[in-house]
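Usage

Read records sequentially. Each one opens with the input sequence:
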Amino acid sequence: MSCLMTIIALATTLASVHSHQLYVLNCPENVKIGQSSMPLRATELADVVSSTLGFTVSNGVKTWSNLMVADPFSLPEAVIVLEIPGSNNPGFDLNKVDHHDLIMDETLDEVYATVEHRMKERLDNKEYSIMHGSLTNDEFLKNQVFHPNFQLNPSIKPQHIDSYNEKYKVFFNEIYNLHQLGQGVKESMLKNNVPDLHWFQLQGVKALTSINEPNSEETIEGEKLLNEAISSLVQSYNEIYNNEVLIIAIANNGKELHRNKRELSSLEMDLNVAEPVSNDFPVIFNLILWFVVIFIFSLLAISLSIAQMDPGRDSIIYRMTSNRMKKEN
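and closes with the structure output:
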């Protein structure tokens, strides 16, 4: 009974923590993030971001197995993170965007704090750029690289959402600020060969889904507008950093239960959950297995052939034993 309750608890926990999804919106050539069923833990996310920026992390090679830095001498110059609560998939094309489950065994604020601490510790005397805040926060926006004369593209004319309706104010302000941020980044002097970290929180989708059904025409159209704004932002960052920038989005439905890593680990230990194995394990296993099989059959064949050998004067047995036989006689 207790085992059943543990299984139910673990299933509930995993269902809640898996409500977070990580989307790779842009990845430099020298950084490879492979597709795998192996989820990423929030406690590993700080190491992934730090490794991408070229910082040595305590886990070393044990950092998330899906991450591979092809050239450690040509690393991304910036990591951009977009937090998008309110939907597991805010309209991203899953055929074009790599996505992974994210286990929330610590909060995203803790992840950001870890990366920020490492940057300040290791880039103490260098001019790096750190941004962290909500695009709906006016005080945060005043200090960023926004373009003051930017005008929203007149082609953005939603059919199902009234842009003048007060209940959609948060959403459209955020869309406007995303386009404004993209224009400001494009005209900034951010690129200086020193790692940068920009971490933005987007609350527009959450505000949109709180007053509309997830599959309603208003929500679908809103997610389309958000994707256009994010695509424009990604393009702007690529231009200023010459495509040497990692951009990820972390989305969730906003209804998950937070459990800390100690609670999650204890549940996994009760069920004796195995540690994740390396992707090289099948190769190593097959090499050892077939070597042992071939070795055993080869040894058996040699033994049988020697056992059935005629001990004549031209045999190896005669040559090896004849001198000893003469001495003994």
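Summary fields computed downstream for this record:
- Residues 1-18 have pLDDT under 50 and may be disordered.
- The longest helix spans residues 281-307.
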